[in-house]
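Support request from a user on the community tier.

User writes: "When I paste my C-alpha cells into the form, the page sometimes reloads and wipes my input. The last time it worked, I copied everything first. Here is what I submitted, just in case something in the input itself triggers the reload:"
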C-alpha cells in the first residue's frame, strides 16, 4: 500500500526505505504488482448497493491495468474506455457497442471568469431532475492515474423518463437552472445565460477494426548496454590453462576486451567459439581482444582439466586467449549487474562482457551475440554520457533529467557482504575522489550530508579490516560534513 509522509522531513524514514527495498526486490524477482487480478466494473443499483458487471460488459480483463480515461469516442452517446497497462498490451481502446432503447444527455459547462468561475468550471455540481428521480455529477479536472477523461458530463436517461431541468451549482456558489423541455442529446451550458445550446453530434463513419496482440518471439539472447559504465575492481584475475593468475586490467590497457564465459558441455558456447574463430581477422582489425574463460571448475574445483578444455578449443578453431574463470570474477560481474539491472537473474552460459579500455564494463550479452553487434557496440563506447544513455534505451525519446546516480553505499555493501572488502573500499574511495568537497560550501547542505554518509561507510569498513588510523581519518571527515550526526558524538 502506498504511504505518504505525515509531516515535513528532510530525510526518508526507516519504514519508507524498508518498503522501497521490498518494492525493488519484487521488481528484481520479476513479481507482478497486481498480476492475475481481473479488472472490475460496478454499476450503481440505485438502492445503496453496487452490482459487479465486469464480465457482462467485457471489462474483466486480466491485464495489469493502471490508467482509465472515459469519453464518447464514436459520438453515439455512450461512454467508451481507454485503458493503459503496465504490461502488454500497454494500451486498449474499448468501444461501447451495447444496444438498448435508453437515451442519453451530455452537458458541457463553460464558466464565466467575471463571476468568479474558471472557464472550465472545475468543481461545478450538476443535478439533473427527471420525472421520478434525480441524477448528480461533479465536474473534475481528472481523477485517474496518468489519465484525462472528457470533461463533458454524461447522464443516462431511461426510455420512459422525462427530462425536466438541470440545476448547476457553479464553483462560485451560484445556482443556475437550465430548462430542457423534452429534448435529450448534447448541450452546452454557459454560466449566466440560463439557456441551453444544442451541440452537433459527432459521428464516425470509419469502422474500428480490432487488432490482435502480437507478442515478440522469445529468445535466449539479451543485450544490456549500461547507461553508466561500471569500473571493474583492480586486480580482478583469472587463471590460464597452466594455473597462473593473470589480470583483466592487463588485457584492457590497449583497448576493448570481450570476456566470454563458456563451458565444455555447452553446445551454443562451442558454436560461439567457432564464430570468434571464423571472424578472428575482423576482431583483430577492430582491435577487440577476446578471452574465453571456462566456468567448468568454479563450483567443482578440478573437475575439468586443461587438456579437455584445450581439446574443445582446438576443435572449435579458436586461437585466442583461453583460461579458467575464477569464482571471484564471476561473483564480481554478477554483483555489478545486480546493482545496475533490476530484473537480473544469474547470467546464462554463454555470456559475454564488453569491457572498454581502462576496465570499464559497458555491454553485457546474455546468451550468444553476433560479431556485428559487438563491433557496433565497440564503436559507440567512450563517446560520452549522452551516447551511453541513448544506446542503453531500446526506444527513441528525450531525457528530462540527468541519469540515475548509483548509490555507492549500496554497491560497497554488496562487495563487503560478499567477502570482497578491498573492492568495497576501492569503490567508496573512487566515488569520493570524483565528488570532492567544494571549499566554502555550507556544512550541513544536502550534498555534504550525503558525502558524510559515504565517509562514514568507508570508516566502518576500514575499522572492520583493522586499519584504525585510516578509519579515524574518515570518521573525522564524516563528522565535519555532518556535525549533528548522533553516531559520532
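"...and here is what came back when it finally went through:"
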Amino acid at each position: 500500500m502506498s504511504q505518504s509522509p505525515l509531516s515535513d522531513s528532510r530525510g526518508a524514514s526507516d519504514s519508507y526505505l524498508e518498503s522501497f527495498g521490498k518494492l525493488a526486490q519484487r521488481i528484481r524477482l520479476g513479481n507482478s504488482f497486481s498480476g492475475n487480478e481481473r479488472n472490475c466494473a460496478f454499476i450503481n443499483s440505485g438502492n445503496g448497493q453496487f452490482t459487479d458487471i465486469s464480465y457482462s460488459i467485457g471489462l474483466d480483463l486480466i491485464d495489469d491495468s493502471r490508467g482509465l480515461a472515459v469519453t464518447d469516442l464514436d459520438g453515439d452517446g455512450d461512454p467508451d474506455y481507454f485503458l493503459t497497462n503496465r504490461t502488454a498490451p500497454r494500451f486498449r481502446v474499448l468501444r461501447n457497442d451495447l444496444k438498448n432503447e435508453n437515451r442519453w444527455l451530455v452537458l458541457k459547462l463553460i464558466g464565466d471568469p467575471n463571476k468568479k468561475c474558471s472557464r472550465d468550471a472545475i468543481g461545478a455540481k450538476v443535478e439533473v431532475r427527471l420525472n421520478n428521480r434525480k441524477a448528480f455529477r461533479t465536474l473534475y479536472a481528472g481523477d485517474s492515474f496518468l489519465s484525462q477523461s472528457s470533461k463533458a458530463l454524461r447522464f443516462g436517461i431511461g426510455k420512459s423518463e422525462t427530462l425536466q431541468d438541470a440545476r448547476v451549482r457553479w464553483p462560485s456558489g451560484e445556482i443556475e437552472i437550465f430548462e430542457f423541455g423534452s429534448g435529450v442529446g448534447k448541450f452546452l451550458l454557459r454560466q449566466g445565460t440560463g439557456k441551453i445550446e444544442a451541440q452537433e453530434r459527432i459521428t464516425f463513419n470509419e469502422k474500428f477494426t480490432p487488432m490482435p496482440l502480437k507478442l515478440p518471439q522469445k529468445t535466449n539472447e539479451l543485450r544490456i548496454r549500461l547507461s553508466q559504465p561500471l569500473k571493474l575492481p583492480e586486480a580482478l584475475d583469472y587463471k590460464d590453462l597452466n594455473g597462473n593468475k593473470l589480470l583483466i586490467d592487463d588485457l584492457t590497457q590497449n583497448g576493448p576486451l570481450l570476456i566470454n564465459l563458456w563451458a565444455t558441455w555447452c553446445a551454443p558456447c562451442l558454436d560461439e567459439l567457432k564464430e570468434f574463430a571464423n571472424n578472428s581477422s575482423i576482431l583483430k582489425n577492430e582491435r577487440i581482444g577476446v578471452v574465453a574463460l571456462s566456468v567448468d571448475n568454479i563450483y567443482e574445483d578440478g573437475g575439468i582439466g586443461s587438456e579437455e578444455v584445450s581439446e574443445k578449443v582446438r576443435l572449435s578453431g579458436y586461437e585466442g586467449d583461453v583460461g579458467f574463470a575464477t569464482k571471484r570474477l564471476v561473483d564480481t560481474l554478477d554483483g555489478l549487474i545486480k546493482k545496475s539491472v533490476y530484473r537480473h537473474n544469474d547470467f546464462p552460459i554463454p555470456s559475454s562482457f564488453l569491457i572498454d579500455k581502462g576496465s570499464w564494463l559497458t555491454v553485457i550479452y546474455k546468451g550468444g551475440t553476433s560479431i556485428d553487434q559487438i563491433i557496433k557496440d565497440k564503436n559507440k563506447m567512450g563517446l560520452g554520457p549522452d551516447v551511453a544513455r541513448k544506446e542503453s534505451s531500446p526506444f527513441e525519446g528525450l531525457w528530462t533529467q540527468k541519469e540515475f546516480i548509483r548509490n555507492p553505499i549500496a554497491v560497497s555493501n554488496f562487495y563487503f557482504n560478499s567477502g570482497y572488502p578491498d573492492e568495497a573500499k576501492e569503490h567508496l574511495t573512487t566515488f569520493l575522489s570524483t565528488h570532492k568537497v567544494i571549499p566554502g560550501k555550507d556544512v550541513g547542505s544536502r550534498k555534504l550530508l550525503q558525502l558524510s554518509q559515504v565517509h562514514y561507510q568507508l570508516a566502518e569498513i576500514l575499522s572492520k579490516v583493522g586499519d584504525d588510523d585510516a578509519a579515524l581519518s574518515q570518521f573525522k571527515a564524516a563528522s565535519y560534513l555532518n556535525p549533528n550526526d548522533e553516531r559520532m558524538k
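Agent notes: The reload is a front-end session timeout and is unrelated to the input. Residues 42-94 form one domain. The chain has four domains: 42-94, 103-198, 222-392, 408-488. Escalated to web team.
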